[in-house]
Structure prediction request, 163 residues.
Amino acid sequence: MYRTSKVACCWAILLALACGGVWLNTSAGHGPATAAEEAKKKRAVEPVEGDMHEFMGHLYEPAYKRLRQSLASKPTSQEAWKNVASDALILAEGGNLLLGRSADSTDDHWASNATGIRTFGSFVYRSAREKDYMNAVFYYRHMVEQCNDCHREFGSPDMRLEP
Prediction:
């Protein structure tokens, strides 16, 4: 009898361990992995303004107009160079935002233009940090070409920017 209760006790312990393992395995979806997924969803990049025309008008247009004016002649003060760098950085980082806004994630033209804006905008930014006017203007013109290519492809023909 003592032996039988000992065997029954061992089986009960094994059964409890097995049930505990099953419970842990099924509840793992509600633990840290799910919390991490929820945190990732909260940090996901999502547009504040869904209308592309409004987005461009409020983010790109003001920075483009200021940068165009700032590069009309060589900046002469530290403050003027800082303004060039600031607007170039806004436009370059805007290229990253454009990458997440394509209606078709397989659209290579959209991604190519957005990447070009980011790349040439970052070159304008770096040139401004180095106070290199010739390179800043050179890369600025290439960045504007990327904008115009995108406008031709996805916007309307009258949306041409002048460097």
User: Anything to note?
Assistant: The chain is about 75% helix and 0% strand.
